[in-house]
Design goal:
oxidoreductase; Sec-dependent nitrous-oxide reductase; Immunoglobulin-like; mainly beta; ten-stranded mixed β-sheet; Methylamine Dehydrogenase, Chain H; copper; WD40/YVTN_repeat-like_dom_sf; 658 residues
């Protein structure tokens, strides 16, 4: 029988097994005992942890409390957001610029908290854009996106945005290998093996969090899936899971599953730094955009950059090594000690655990099994600590509780399995509902996990929630892991598709200088209005700038006349409030973009193009006081070429103008 069809048949059997085993047998009594009490957070009380969950195809990050599962906020990152005006107001539009132009959407897969000495520190959250490759930095003092950098030579930024233990670098591996940016890409797709390359990007993080691509490594044309940095003894190394080592370019579900093993790529980034300093990196022409938001001016700017430093893994043979890993690995996870690297072959019936010490010894003694596209391949047994035998079906992702235990999700058998890292013995297993992807233990990929809760992020929720048409909500489920046995205590629906998440103690972030309002006197926006007496309307040709203020419960000015069809009107609204949690909204009839949501002390700008004659109301969209409904105004729009003078007023009915 044809080998291709044999493997395809096996895949079909696996899928059928997955659907038939979707609902665990003991699902009826999975939640019992004191589960409700463990998940309950009384009114007025705070949750123990913040949980930052990727939004998948929503392009955003959602913030939940643990253990309550309450949704606190959706942070706009890669998608325009009508609630906040992100990507709609003039100040934040530059945040969504790329070398392809304005891109107001992306597929946000993974989140990562900044670390100091290998422990989460509550400063920043990093997020990846999978579709148009980008990395974002979210400031956890304001829960807003402050920076986005595009990744050149990349396509499908999946193995990202994972960090080194002191947040020296945010690292990204390309999901789809493609021809590099500086060559002619108009080539036959079936020349994949000759012309396609995979790039690893090392993005330097400055003291204030600023992002800059320090260097890239040109690697073989494979698919990089996930990654994690070494820690402790393995600090200075990074580990990436690789699949499609067959370098197939069509029907990957069959053609990228031919070999029994793919690879974990081990990267010595300290050695790579040395080569960069020694001038071994080549300057390669490309185009990528760096976007940043200035807290002082309340505005974002975009900068086009035109070159990047590239090291060749093929030429510099001591920066990258391949470790064979059972086929189609997804997760690539490093335990808190930095000694053990866990691979998760999606099509394997075991979990391989590699030893950093053994890997180092294998490199020293050249225990290689040839090369893969110029990169040394370490012998499997030489780097192997051992294998977890028959743990479940479809292993995906592993995190750790800091007590010597690992927890792995199994997509096909819909479960989480707890096992001992050293002995490799399975200790416990619990069903999930259903088809779990990633999991999160607060601090679970750091040196110091807070091993009280485990959250599983599930792809399917059939029979779990009220139906909502053809598409059902995806979900998260919280398990108490403080004892020997895991206990399901709560599940809740999520925003978008929850791929990956990070969590940290609430006090670490809540007490880390949370910003409550912007000080008016420090507002350096070019169109700021620091008091009602400074409000004005200025015309320059067909551009009209409205310098406006908002305060409970009126706008200044609230009557504007002399606007003409065809004008470009910019409403620069400054929120004069100097109190916590008193934002104001601004919306005008017929606006074809969105609203403004202006934080206390902030200035935001809405561009409006009047298209027809008439009286057009504007109003506050965010409830602010008992007289919120009265917070409104009018704009009179006259025909193009009208001689009606430009006037504005507050509290006075000006004489009628003919």
């Amino acid at each position: 029988m044809n080998n291709t069809f044999t493997k395809a048949g096996i895949a079909i059997v696996l899928v059928a097994a997955f659907f038939s085993s979707c609902k665990p047998k003991n699902s009826g009594d999975a939640v019992s005992g004191d589960a409700a009490q463990k998940a309950y957070v009384a009114p007025g009380k705070y949750d123990e942890f913040y949980n930052f969950v990727s939004g998948g195809f929503s392009g955003q990050v959602s913030v939940y409390g643990l253990p309550s599962g309450r949704l606190f906020r959706v942070i706009p990152v890669f998608s325009a957001d009508p609630q906040s005006g992100y990507g709609y107001n003039e100040e934040t539009k530059p945040m969504l610029n790329t070398s392809h132009g304005f891109v107001p959407w992306d597929d946000q897969h993974h989140t990562e908290l900044s670390q100091t000495n290998g422990e989460v520190d509550g400063r920043w959250l990093f997020a990846n854009a999978n579709n148009t490759p980008r990395i974002a930095r979210v400031d956890l003092k304001t829960f807003t996106t402050k920076e986005i950098i595009e990744l050149p030579n990349s396509a499908g930024n999946h193995s990202s945005p994972f960090i080194t233990e002191n947040t020296e670098y945010v690292v990204a591996g390309t999901r789809f290998s493609v021809p590099p940016d500086n060559v002619n890409g108009d080539i036959p797709i079936n020349t994949y093996k000759e012309n396609f390359k995979g790039y690893l990007s090392f993005v330097k993080v400055g003291k204030a969090g600023e992002l800059d691509i320090a260097f890239q490594i040109e690697a073989p044309g494979v698919n990089f899936d996930l990654s994690h940095a070494g820690k402790g003894k393995s600090h200075g190394w990074f580990f990436f899971s690789c699949y499609n080592t067959e370098q197939a370019n069509t029907l990957l579900e069959v053609n990228a599953s031919q070999k029994d093993k793919d690879f974990i790529m081990a990267v010595n980034w300290k050695k790579a730094e040395e080569y960069v300093k020694a001038g071994k990196a080549k300057k390669v022409a490309t185009k990528y955009v760096h976007n940043s938001y200035d807290e002082k001016t309340h505005t974002a700017k975009s900068e086009m950059r035109t070159e990047v430093l590239v090291l060749s893994a093929k030429e510099l043979k001591d920066i990258c090594y391949m470790i064979p890993c059972p086929k189609s690995p997804h997760g690539c996870d490093v335990d808190p000690t930095g000694e053990y690297i866990v691979g998760s072959g999606k099509l394997a019936a075991l979990i391989p655990v590699f030893s950093f010490d053994k890997m180092q010894n294998a490199i020293k003694n050249k225990q290689f099994d040839g090369e893969y596209d110029g990169i040394p391949v370490i012998k499997y047994e030489a780097a192997l600590h051992g294998e977890v035998q028959k743990p479940g079906l479809g292993p995906l992702h592993t995190e750790f509780d800091g007590k010597g235990n690992a927890y792995t999700t199994f997509f096909v058998s819909s479960e989480v399995v707890k096992w001992d890292i050293k002995s490799l013995k399975v200790l416990d297993r619990v069903p999930t509902y259903y088809s779990v992807g990633h999991l999160c233990i607060p601090g679970g990929d750091s040196k110091k996990p807070f091993g009280k809760y485990l959250i599983a992020y599930n792809k399917i929720t059939k029979d779990r929630y009220l139906p909502t048409g053809p598409e059902l909500a995806q979900s998260a489920q919280i398990f108490d892991i403080s004892g020997d046995k895991m206990q399901l205590i709560l599940d809740f629906p999520t925003i978008g598709e929850p791929h990956y998440a990070q969590a940290a103690p609430a006090d670490l972030i809540r007490n880390n200088g949370q910003l409550k309002f912007y000080k008016i006197e420090e507002n350096n926006h070019p169109f700021v209005t620091k008091g009602e007496k400074e409000s004005k309307v200025v015309r320059k040709g067909n551009r009209v700038d409205v310098y406006m203020t908002s305060i409970r419960s009126h706008f200044a000015s609230d009557n504007i006349e002399g606007i003409k069809v065809g004008d470009e009107v910019y409403f620069h609204v400054t929120n004069l409030e100097q109190d916590w949690d008193v934002p104001h909204g601004f919306a005008i009839k017929g606006a074809d973009n969105g609203e403004l949501l202006i934080m206390p002390g902030e200035t935001c700008t809405l561009k409006w193009m009047p298209k027809k004659v008439g009286i057009v109301p504007f109003y506050c969209t965010d409830f602010c006081s008992a007289l919120h409904q009265e917070m409104q105004g009018y704009v009179r729009v006259s025909p193009a070429g009208s001689t009606i003078p430009l006037t504005f007023s507050l509290g006075t009915n000006v004489p009628a103008t003919k």
